[in-house]
Design goal:
4-stranded parallel β-sheet; single chain; 40% helix; globular; alpha/beta; two-stranded antiparallel ribbon; 8 helices; 225 residues; Uracil-DNA Glycosylase, subunit E
């Protein structure tokens, strides 16, 4: 077990370095301000969200769920992988955190992948750390409110941070959600548990793969969504 101060120090350092990343046709949630949706201090709020999550998870998470990259309706807005604004309060309760901040203005947005992920997390005995193979929101050129798959060349530039996170959670099971996350982890010499991505008809296989691998709560202990 590490001390709270040590967990916070590592999380703050990790997020500070994450905030320095800048690439063409990407949005860095921890450094960039979206002129359409963000509050003026949005990057700082998202950094604080991620620092709180990383601090809470380091000695408790039995798994790291690894998606592909942030989506424009989810982690681009919240700073938390596989978590949209509709599930910020549920995530805070799950991690034992007072609250996660909303960093955007206007209508609260939902993301299907996040909804599927948190409906399943709600059923598990332990809450996983959530992260992505590529930590920036990759979008089509000229269309920041779109999603695209990151390239291998882009991902390689961020691999040192992914490696550091995997090393920090070395006692946790690494769950690769989909083939892109699988390839990213294997490229770093780590063998993950691979589950189907819940998008494009994969929800049933994703759910069955997770429930087969991790213990569930008793029904009376489930969070209300």
């Amino acid at each position: 077990m590490t001390t709270l101060r040590a967990r916070q120090a590592w999380a703050t350092s990790f997020v500070s370095r994450l905030a320095t990343l800048k690439m063409r046709d990407t949005f860095n949630p921890y450094a960039d301000v979206c002129p359409i949706a963000d509050a003026p201090d949005a990057p700082a709020l998202r950094r604080a969200n991620l620092i709180a999550q990383l601090t809470a998870c380091q000695d408790t998470a039995d798994a790291v769920w690894l998606g592909r990259e942030p989506g424009y309706r989810g982690a681009r807005r919240t700073g938390l992988a596989l978590t949209d604004e509709m599930h910020l309060d549920q995530a805070a309760r799950a991690y034992g955190i007072r609250s996660f901040a909303r960093a955007t203005r206007g209508t609260t947005m939902s993301e299907r992948t996040a909804a599927v992920a948190w409906s399943l997390i709600n059923r598990l005995s332990a809450v996983p750390m959530t992260w992505n193979a590529f930590p920036l929101h990759a979008h089509q050129h000229g269309n920041p409110m779109s999603n695209r798959c990151h390239t291998r060349a882009e991902r390689v530039l961020t691999d040192p941070l992914l490696r550091e996170l995997l090393d920090r959670f070395s006692n946790a099971t690494i769950v690769a959600i989909g083939n892109d996350a699988r390839d990213a982890v294997i490229a770093l010499g780590v063998t993950p548990l691979v589950v189907r991505h819940p998008s494009y008809g994969g929800q049933s296989e994703f759910t069955s793969g997770i429930l087969a691998a991790f213990p569930q709560k008793q029904e009376a202990d489930l969070f209300l969504i």
